[in-house]
Each structure stands twice: as structure tokens, then as C-alpha cells.
Recover the amino acids of this structure.
């Protein structure tokens, strides 16, 4: 039993919205106005409102609806798979923003915090004023970000990593900007191991800024600018041991400042291992300005290629070109994501270089390192070259005490540290308790605070030195509710794509207060139990009980303070229906007098997972004596029922749903004194372990009567002719119904023959449903799969026949109808001996009605029954007539459930609705009294 079916980053890049996401206060949080939310949780919905309570599951769903001024919060850490195409634009004053939000960073070290992940390409197609930030993008055979025909696009704080082998043939870029785009900024991002270029700008693009990025390990260039006007390439750390860190060609114009070129990044496949770090083609050299760049390359590698001439030192480059007057080489830059103290790249950049932001790749501020002389220029002389700003080494003490308790909760924080920073500067401390109260600035000693509202809060201490360098320590404070969080449990069978696994309990759990929970355990009622994550909104369990008992499951949840709450729900596993199309004769043969035939699971196609019953159609041709057939589970005692009655030398057909043995076998008994010829077809199977369809009974309605013209056909159907009847999309039958339950009557037959029913639009789906003799009236219920909502009725006799068709229900395409509980065949009504009549022994009189109890007897549940599965039999009638079965307490329909002829014992499978009191009514429409039998084969119950 169980539910079988059922790289480093900096803390400063963290984005937190409000208090800790997923930990609301007393009222449900619908999020910030103007914000759409995407979060891969159990209760997300791509057709929902995109609120914080009911977020979208996919980014694409939000991208299809976002409007100017809105922000799309992509909440992590779960992966949001799939590509995203953005086609909606913002405005200059109201851009559209897509931003990653880390949902639970508290207590996680800075090196382990990653942005929300997207496993596919983001394409910006023909848009403007769109900002994308703080996402982790994995890509392999496509670019990570494609900017096509777009303007005023900002790509900020992205983390892009190439996946797959480094010798893969596809040359894919981290960010690709096509020639029809302009005013595009790529900033403060990390792009690693691209199989093509980290950033590629195509010919025709203009006004492109690439600034303050760490670009490492690309197979080709880290930045490749080709035929681009006005490119600002500033403040990047370009680590490439293979291709050039920066390549400019095809008449481009650019400003290149404050970049640091290193050669430490490794790649296994290098198309040009000796490429210079910084390359400008002759057609672009006159339009490129370069200065304040720094080089830390492996010895012997060319630093510059300018106008097709190589230079190995900055001095040689400046002397020859007049460029790079403030360039540095051999700066001893050991590793691209940490600047060595006392490095010459510290406090030596041009702060006025175009595009330079006020913070570095980690979001850290530009600060003055007091251990290094300020040699920079511009509005500030303390900017560092490259993507990283050297910071003071600071630390803060531990978190609030206590860290959890029942509210109101008073806590204390001692923020100060005896350990000085590496720069030896004075420090100040700020304490933010995370609940919206004013932060305590310039804190000293011990700070106290009382939380009044339950929730989980990010208590923060920020240490700032006199030059503005800072670090933040975050700790979690949990304030509990006065009483344990309430719990609830809603259960149903598991539905997927319009089908249902009726043997699997699908549970929806209350997730509104899961922030306060420590554990959840579910006892399934069958002797097993499971632990369920406290963040789960759904869970499930498979039941394998073929007796279809009702189970009471119990959810016990324990909160972080040791308090418990419970909820219970009942579930009865059942079967769903899978039609087998096209039907085929699974068995054809002779059964001797009083013989017993084993119809095996392989014969009946009942050998698949969890099959409990088979919908069979049986045709018998009598020998020298009449009789009956009984079908029942293999290995059980033969019940006193008849599935099919027949006369000597006459072909008779009937349907029935027969419970199978655990191995899937069925017994067929010949109750005749003579051998008979038998054909068996499996029309469908019922399983508790497979996804199948559900059944919805309807008030019986006549859709065809050739005697009166109902259904559009008037007059008998000629020999060998067919008529097509539309049954779906009318009379309460949905247009997308998977199958329909029909009772087809043949009357006024001018010759013996048979009726074939075919699913219109489904090849080889014909099945024979009725046999008759001249003048005989016969009715038969059959389940007909639907392709286009129509069925075809074919007269296979040598004479004409009138056809009457009634609809009793349909097999739905939603999985929300009734499920099936098979039972051992049982006689529940027999007017000959008083069974089901309260002991009264008497025929059912002409134009009289009797009712018999169905629910709450013979193993049928006392409530929830929607339709009975019966074989109704009229025994040796004195005259012809009909029987009608319907739900007690409702109006008798103008249809027939069984047509019988004089002296002919006649059975028919019926599926009448069950009254709210559990009773079924039978009306005798004949002119003489008749004995009536009803054998129970199962029941349809509401989910």
C-alpha cells in the first residue's frame, strides 16, 4: 500500500517580499496590488487569478496576462520548467517586470541561496519596456535569453549556466540580442560555460549596455559585438582561457572601460586557445574607446588585438594606439569572484564610465577601501574595476532569543560584535524585526521587541562600517497562534485529463497555516499510514481492497509547539470504466448441457491492473431445449440468478456486468438440458487501479422512434439498411460524452434477424445487440463508445423492422460522474416467491407498479447510489408488453426498460436511477399480469 500511483551565489542578490512567503498573518494574503505570482505548489493554477494564495504554475501563464506597470513574482526555489515567450509590453513610466523571489532564505547560508530556476529559453519578441531579474536559467540546445526586435529591455541579476557536455556541437549563447533590437541592458549577471558566447549582440543592434557582469568559460567570446552602434561594455569580469573575453567587429562603435580580463576559466574544447583577451577588428578600431581595463592572464597570452595587431602589455598597446592610458596588466587577480585586498583594481575605476551602476554584481555598494589609495576618476574615485567591489569583512552575532513561542512573543537581540572588521572602521548596527515595525538604528547593547501577530518573521541585523560596507545576518522568529492551527480534509478519487482512478484517494489539505506545522501523519484506515510534508496541498493513497469497504482516514497534524489537531474523512474505493474498442468476440464455442465454462482473464482482457468486473455481451443459440445462462466470479458458488434466458433453436443476446475473480476469470454455466452455442464479447472493463471513465444516469428519454418520426426517421427500416442517430449534444447528453447507454427496441419485424450497432466514426466497432423472430419485439441495453456523438443502427434481417431507441445515461469525459461497485450476482426481486416484495407472492398486475429496496441491502451502500445495475426478466408472459424501471419518488418516464412477447421469458440489462429513499419502481405496461425477476450485478455511486 502507498502512493505509487499517485553554483555559489551572494546573499545580497536575495529578494524577499513582505514577511516570509508562505507564512501569512491571521488573514489570507492576496499579495501586492499589481503583482502576479508564479509558484510551483500543489494549489497553483494556470487558469486561476495568479494571486499569492492561488498563484500561476507556469511563468507563461503570467506572461500571457501581464499588463504595463505589473510585476510578476516568480517564487522559488522549485523549478519552473518550460520556455517562456514574452509578447506583452510595458511603457517607459510603467514597465513590465519579471523577478525571481526566494521564498525561504532564512537560516540558509549565503553561498546556498539560488534564484528560482527556469529550465528553458526566455524569448522577448517585439516588446518594449520589459525588465527581467533574479532568475536561474539552465540551457543546453537553445540560447538562455533571446531578445528579438525589442527595445528598452533590462536583464539584471540573472544566473545563466550551460548544461550538457562541453564538446556539444550546438553553439548556444547565454544572452543573444538580434539586429532589430536596441536600448538593451545586461547587468549584474553571471553567465557560465556557454557553448557559444556569453553575450552576443548582432549586426544592426544599437545602444546596448553590458555592465558589471561576471562572464566565465564561454567556448567563443564572453562578449561578442558585431556591427553594433553605441555599445557600452563596462565594469565586467571576463574570465576566459579559451576565446577572447571581448570581441568587437564589423564596424561597431563602443566604449570599453573598467573591465577585468582573466584567463583562469577552463573549457575542455577551445576553438581558439591562443585568442587575445580583448579583440577589436580593423573595421571597428576607429570607433572604439578603451581605458581603465585590467588584465590578469596566464603568462605569454596576448592581451590585445587591435586592428589586427597583437599587444602583450598595456604599455605597448597605449604607445601604439593612444588607447588604454590607465590600463593595468599583471594585476595578480587570483580568482574572478573575489578581489584580493590591496589589488590595483580596487578604487581605480572610472566612475563616469557609461552604464556603471551604483552596486556591484552582488548588489553590494561602491565603497572606499581605506587600505588602498584612491586612484579612480569621475564623480567618485572609489569604484573598483570589474564586476566586484571589495567590501569590509564584517560579522554580526546570533539571532533573537527566544526564536519561537506563542504570541504575543517578546524577544531580545544583542547585535554588537567584539570582532572588528578587516578595515578597522567604526561600525553601526541596525535591527529590523521583520514585522513592519520601525527598524532600530544605531542599536547598541540589547534590543527588545514584542511580536503581536502570529507568523514567521525574518529578523535581521545589519552591520555597517563608516565607509558604507555592510553585511546582514538573518534569523527566523516564529510567533505561534493562541490555539493549534485548524485542519481539514477533502477526499475524492484521483481525476486526471477527464478520467478517474477510483481506487486512489486524492486528498486536498488545508495549507493556509502550514508555516506553523512540524509534521503531518495520515492513517488511511487500512492499517497503513504515511507522513505528509507540511507544505503539501495534496496527497494520495492507493487501495487494493476488492470488497470495496468504506475507510475512515484520519489526518493528525502537530505544530512546532507540540500541539495537535485532527480531521477525518471517509473514502470508498470503486471502479471506473474503460470501453474496449473495437469489440471482438473473445470466446466462441459450445457449452454442454449443465456445463461450466471458465472464461479466463486472458480471454476476457481482464488481466490488466486492478480489474474487478467485465462488461460482457453474450449471445446464445439454443439447442434442442431452452434454458438460461448464469455468469459469476470464478471460484465462487453459483448464485441463483439468470443472465440470459433463451428458447430452443433461438438466438438470444444480452449484456451484463460480471464481477471477476481476483485473477480476472468468470464462470459461465449453461442451465439448459441441451448443449448451446455461445459467443462472448468484452465491451469494457472496470478497474480500481486504472484511469477510466465515470457514468452519469439521466432520466430516460426517447431519441428515436421510426413509428412516429421521433429522431427524424419515419417508417420501418428496410432489410440491410442503416440509420444514423445523433445522441450527444442533445437530451442532456454532453457533446463530448465518451459513450452512451442506449436501449434499442426492435418491433413489427417482418422477418427474423438481428440488429448491429456501430459507433459512427470508429472503424470496426460494430456489435450485434439483438436477435428476433418474425413479429417479435425485443429490447437490449448496450454501451456504445462515441467519436462524433452519433451511432449507426443496421437492420441485418431479410425484412423491415421498426426501431425505438431510448437513452439512459452516458459515460462522461470529465471523470466527475458515478463510479462502480460490482457485487456478486444476487436475486433481489422474484414475484414468484416473495423475494424483494416483503413476502407477497403475486404477479405484477397489468398497468400496476411495485417497488423494491435496492440501497442498504445485499451489500449495496445505504446512501450514494445513483443507478442500479440489474438484469430484469419477465417470466413466461401471457401476452406481450413491457416493463419500465425508474427511481422511486420520481415521475415514470415514457420509455420501456424491457419488451416481452407472449410466452417468451425475456431478460434485459437495465441501469435505472435509484430513488433518494433507496428504492426502484417497476411498472408493467402489458395487458396481463406477469412474474418479474431482478438480479443485482452492481451499483453506480456518487464520488
Amino acid at each position: 500500500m502507498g502512493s505509487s500511483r499517485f553554483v555559489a551565489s551572494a546573499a545580497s542578490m536575495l529578494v524577499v517580499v513582505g514577511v516570509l512567503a508562505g507564512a501569512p498573518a491571521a488573514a489570507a494574503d492576496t499579495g501586492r496590488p499589481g503583482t502576479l505570482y508564479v509558484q510551483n505548489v500543489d494549489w497553483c493554477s494556470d487558469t486561476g487569478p495568479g494571486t499569492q494564495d492561488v498563484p500561476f504554475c507556469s511563468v507563461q501563464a503570467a506572461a500571457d496576462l501581464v499588463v504595463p506597470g505589473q510585476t510578476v513574482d516568480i517564487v522559488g526555489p522549485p523549478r519552473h520548467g518550460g520556455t517562456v515567450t514574452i509578447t506583452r509590453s510595458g511603457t517607459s513610466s510603467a514597465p513590465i517586470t519579471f523577478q525571481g523571489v526566494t521564498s525561504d532564505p532564512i537560516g540558509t547560508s549565503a553561498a546556498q541561496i539560488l534564484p528560482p530556476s527556469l529550465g528553458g529559453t526566455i524569448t522577448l519578441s517585439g516588446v518594449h519596456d520589459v525588465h527581467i531579474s533574479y532568475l536561474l536559467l539552465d540551457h543546453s540546445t537553445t540560447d538562455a535569453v533571446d531578445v528579438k526586435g525589442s527595445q528598452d529591455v533590462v536583464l539584471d541579476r540573472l544566473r545563466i549556466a550551460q548544461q550538457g557536455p562541453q564538446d556539444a556541437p550546438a553553439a548556444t549563447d547565454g544572452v543573444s540580442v538580434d539586429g532589430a533590437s536596441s536600448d538593451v541592458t545586461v547587468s549584474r549577471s553571471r553567465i557560465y560555460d556557454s557553448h557559444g558566447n556569453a553575450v552576443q549582440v548582432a549586426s544592426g543592434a544599437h545602444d546596448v549596455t553590458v555592465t558589471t557582469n561576471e562572464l566565465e568559460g564561454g567556448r567563443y567570446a564572453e562578449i561578442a559585438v558585431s556591427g553594433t552602434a553605441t555599445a557600452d561594455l563596462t565594469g565586467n569580469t571576463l574570465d576566459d582561457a579559451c576565446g577572447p573575453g571581448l570581441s568587437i567587429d564589423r564596424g561597431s562603435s563602443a566604449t570599453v572601460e573598467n573591465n577585468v580580463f582573466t584567463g583562469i576559466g577552463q573549457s575542455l574544447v577551445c576553438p581558439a586557445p591562443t585568442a587575445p583577451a580583448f579583440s577589436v577588428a580593423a573595421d571597428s578600431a576607429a570607433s572604439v574607446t578603451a581605458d581603465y581595463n585590467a588584465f590578469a592572464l596566464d603568462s605569454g597570452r596576448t592581451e590585445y588585438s587591435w586592428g589586427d595587431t597583437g599587444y602583450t602589455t598595456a604599455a605597448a598597446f597605449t604607445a601604439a594606439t593612444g588607447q588604454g592610458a590607465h590600463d593595468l596588466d599583471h594585476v595578480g587577480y587570483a580568482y574572478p569572484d573575489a578581489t584580493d585586498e590591496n589589488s590595483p583594481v580596487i578604487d581605480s575605476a572610472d566612475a563616469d564610465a557609461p552604464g556603471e551602476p551604483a552596486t556591484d554584481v552582488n548588489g553590494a555598494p561602491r565603497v572606499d577601501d581605506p587600505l588602498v589609495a584612491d586612484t579612480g576618476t569621475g564623480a567618485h574615485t572609489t569604484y573598483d574595476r570589474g564586476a566586484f567591489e571589495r567590501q569590509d569583512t564584517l560579522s554580526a552575532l546570533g539571532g533573537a532569543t527566544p526564536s519561537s513561542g506563542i504570541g504575543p512573543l517578546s524577544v531580545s537581540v544583542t547585535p554588537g560584535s567584539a570582532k572588528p572588521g578587516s578595515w578597522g572602521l567604526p561600525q553601526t548596527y541596525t535591527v529590523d524585526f521583520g514585522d513592519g515595525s520601525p527598524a532600530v538604528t544605531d542599536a547598541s547593547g540589547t534590543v527588545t521587541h514584542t511580536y503581536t501577530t502570529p507568523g514567521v518573521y525574518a529578523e535581521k541585523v545589519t552591520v555597517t562600517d563608516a565607509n558604507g560596507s555592510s553585511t546582514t545576518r538573518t534569523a527566523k522568529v516564529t510567533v505561534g497562534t493562541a490555539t493549534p492551527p485548524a485542519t481539514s480534509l477533502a477526499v475524492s478519487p484521483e481525476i486526471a485529463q477527464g478520467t478517474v482512478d477510483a481506487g486512489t484517494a486524492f486528498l486536498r489539505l488545508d495549507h493556509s497555516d502550514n508555516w506553523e506545522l512540524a509534521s503531518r501523519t495520515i492513517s488511511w484506515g487500512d492499517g497503513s499510514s504515511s507522513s505528509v510534508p507540511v507544505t503539501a496541498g495534496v496527497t494520495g493513497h492507493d487501495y487494493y481492497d476488492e470488497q470495496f469497504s468504506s475507510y475512515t482516514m484520519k489526518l493528525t497534524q502537530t505544530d512546532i509547539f507540540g500541539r495537535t489537531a485532527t480531521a477525518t474523512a471517509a473514502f470508498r474505493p470503486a471502479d471506473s470504466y474503460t470501453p474496449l474498442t473495437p469489440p471482438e468476440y473473445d470466446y466462441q464455442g459450445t457449452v454442454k448441457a449443465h456445463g461450466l465454462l471458465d472464461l479466463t482473464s486472458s480471454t476476457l482482457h481482464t488481466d490488466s491492473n486492478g480489474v474487478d468486473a467485465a462488461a460482457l455481451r453474450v449471445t446464445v443459440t439454443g439447442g434442442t431445449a431452452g434454458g438460461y445462462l448464469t455468469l459469476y466470479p470464478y471460484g465462487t458458488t453459483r448464485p441463483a440468478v439468470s443472465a440470459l434466458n433463451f428458447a430452443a433453436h433461438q438466438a438470444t443476446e444480452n449484456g451484463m456486468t460480471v464481477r471477476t475473480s481476483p485473477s480476472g476469470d468468470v464462470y459461465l454455466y449453461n442451465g439448459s438440458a441441451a448443449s448451446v452455442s455461445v459467443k462472448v464479447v468484452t465491451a469494457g472493463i472496470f478497474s480500481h487501479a486504472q484511469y477510466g471513465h465515470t457514468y452519469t444516469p439521466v432520466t430516460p428519454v426517447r431519441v428515436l422512434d421510426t413509428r412516429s418520426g421521433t429522431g427524424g426517421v419515419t417508417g420501418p427500416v428496410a432489410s440491410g439498411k442503416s440509420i444514423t442517430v445523433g445522441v450527444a449534444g442533445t437530451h442532456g447528453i454532453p457533446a463530448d460524452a465518451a459513450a452512451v447507454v442506449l436501449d434499442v427496441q426492435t418491433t413489427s419485424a417482418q422477418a427474423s434477424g438481428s440488429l448491429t450497432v456501430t459507433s459512427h466514426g470508429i472503424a470496426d466497432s460494430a456489435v450485434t445487440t439483438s436477435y428476433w423472430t418474425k413479429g417479435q419485439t425485443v429490447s437490449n441495453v448496450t454501451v456504445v463508445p462515441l467519436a462524433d456523438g452519433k451511432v449507426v443502427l443496421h437492420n441485418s434481417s431479410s425484412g423491415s423492422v421498426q426501431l425505438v431507441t431510448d437513452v439512459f445515461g452516458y459515460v462522461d469525459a470529465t471523470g466527475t460522474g458515478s463510479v462502480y461497485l460490482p457485487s456478486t450476482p444476487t436475486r433481489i426481486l422474484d414475484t414468484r416467491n416473495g423475494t424483494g416484495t416483503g413476502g407477497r407472492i403475486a404477479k405484477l398486475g397489468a398497468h400496476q407498479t411495485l417497488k423494491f429496496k435496492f440501497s442498504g441491502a445485499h451489500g449495496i451502500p445505504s446512501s450514494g447510489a445513483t443507478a442500479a445495475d440489474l438484469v430484469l426478466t419477465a417470466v413466461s408472459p401471457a401476452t406481450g408488453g413491457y416493463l419500465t424501471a425508474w427511481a422511486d419518488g420520481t415521475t415514470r418516464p415514457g420509455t420501456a426498460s424491457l419488451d416481452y412477447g407472449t410466452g417468451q421469458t425475456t431478460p434485459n440489462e437495465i441501469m435505472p436511477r435509484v430513488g433518494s429513499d433507496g428504492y426502484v419502481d417497476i411498472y408493467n405496461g402489458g395487458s396481463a399480469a406477469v412474474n418479474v425477476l431482478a438480479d443485482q450485478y452492481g451499483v453506480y455511486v456518487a464520488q
The CA atoms of residues 737 and 812 lie 5 Å apart. The chain is about 0% helix and 40% strand.
